[in-house]
């Protein structure tokens, strides 16, 4: 995805503000399996996925629990690190070879101070991240794994083709065997 498409999907900016912000975004590439963020480390930069898929996970009791998946156009940020400067909870790993745009924390802070349009963009970014978290958390508490799988099929079918079964199962809160049963029952 193009920088301006990603920026405008969060909140449209006037041309001058768009140019300033896009000029500050650096393109970086990572191989499949690379960890972009590491749990217990501070990463204050914000990333945007140009191409590829990543997953966020926590390690507990010797297992990796995937709680978030992101594809093209999606922001990648450890909100705890970004906001507080403290180590984050999560690790973020590339599931495919991935190209990202990175926006450095200090640069973004400066842009917020210098351009009210970009500051408003940042507010909308934070609001949308809160909504995304809420939309993920509430269904996890009150829907079945089969319902969550159907929602994933309807809203993000590309993830079903591109994310390994074990990560999808973890994301849905089930074992790979249970996910296979759910998939078979829906055919």
Please explain how this structure is put together:
With 187 residues, this protein is α+β, with helices and mostly antiparallel strands. Helices cover 51% and strands 22% of the residues. The protein has helices at 3-10, 15-23, 79-84, 105-114, 116-142, 145-155, 157-162, 165-172, 176-185, and strands at 26-30, 35-37, 46-51, 54-60, 63-70, 75-76, 91-94, 98-103. The strands form 2 sheets. It has a 4-stranded antiparallel β-sheet with strand order 1-8-3-6. The radius of gyration is 17 Å and the shape is globular.
Largest sheet: 4 strands, antiparallel
Q: In DSSP terms, counting alpha (H) and pi (I) runs of 4 or more, how many helices?
A: 9
Helix-strand topology string = HHEEEEEEHEEHHHHHH
Q: Which structural class should the secondary elements be placed in?
A: alpha+beta
- The portion of residues forming beta strands comes to 15-25%
Could you say which overall geometry the principal axes of the C-alpha atoms support? Answer: globular
Mean pLDDT: 96
Number of beta-strand segments: 8
Identify low-pLDDT runs: none
Our measurement of the CA-to-CA distance between the termini, rounded to an integer number of angstroms, reads 32 Å
Helix content: 40-55%
Q: Return Rg in Å.
A: 17 Å
The spatial strand order of the largest sheet comes to 1-8-3-6
